[in-house]
Design a protein that fits this description.
The chain has 242 residues and is an alpha+beta fold. Helix content is 26%, strand content 26%.
Length: 242
């Protein structure tokens, strides 16, 4: 496009230059040309607007009955995934990334919260990004069609450890997903009696429940592969970015 503009300018300068003994051509309007270069951008903008609105409607559409419901909480600087129906919770930090396990060919409803600053939930392979905003609930349906492990990040600057606020999405077969749920339920039932009643973690859940103790400091969870991890990183300074 830039080359075309330069070529037209050069042609106009040469074609309509002043010549000795001859007055340059002068004109003040060209109605058909003006209508053309006014109409074409309007048509392009209208087409792009229509395509964009249709795409956003398709991407933003949510199922009436999703197969899995997960409450996603983004906090400085980690993620918490709470499976509402299964009653299990996975919590990660900027040092030990959490893993969200999803069954293949099933629709998962992600309900996004933030107790502190603005974050953004983004898995590049899902081709969609959704902001995680304090005081607001955003929803996102995803239906993975192939198994595998995919990286996710916070795509909104949120403070000192923003670049380390990552997570993993593991898409597995339905049988593996059920086995993962059973392991987590058993493990968390064993840990229930170890937490003093009323203990709160680093932030407050927009849904009214406090984050588990140490949610912003450490994590102990078993991913789908069965390996158990436990990390307690040193305390870090807090920086709020509104």
């Amino acid at each position: 496009m830039g080359g075309l503009v330069v070529a037209l300018l050069g042609w106009s300068i040469v074609r309509y230059r002043v010549r000795e003994g001859r007055d340059p051509a002068t004109f003040f309007e060209h109605v058909r040309l003006e209508l053309f270069y006014t109409a074409v951008p309007l048509v392009l903008v209208a087409v792009l607007f229509g395509v964009t609105m249709a795409t956003q409607r398709d991407v933003g559409r949510v199922a009436s009955e999703p197969d899995v419901r997960i409450e996603v909480t983004g906090f400085q600087w980690g993620w918490r995934f709470r499976y509402l129906t299964e009653g299990i919770t996975i919590v990660g930090t900027s040092i030990d990334r959490p893993t969200m396990v999803l069954p293949v060919d099933a629709t998962a409803r992600l309900t996004l919260h933030s107790p502190d600053v603005i974050h953004a939930f983004w898995v590049p392979q899902f081709l969609v990004k959704r902001d995680v905003i304090p005081g607001r609930v955003n929803r996102l349906d995803v239906t993975p069609t192939r198994t595998g492990t995919f990286g996710g990040v916070c795509a909104e600057f949120c403070g000192l450890d923003h670049t380390d606020m990552t997570f993993t999405v593991e898409v597995v077969e339905p049988e593996q997903f059920q086995a993962f749920v059973a392991r987590q339920q058993q493990q968390q039932q064993q840990q229930t009696g170890q937490m003093p009643p009323g203990t709160q973690g680093g932030g407050s859940d927009p849904g009214g429940q406090a984050l588990p103790a140490g949610a912003d400091r450490g994590v102990q969870a078993t991913p789908a592969g069965g390996a158990q991890t436990s990390v307690v990183p040193p305390p870090r300074p807090q920086l709020s970015v509104g």
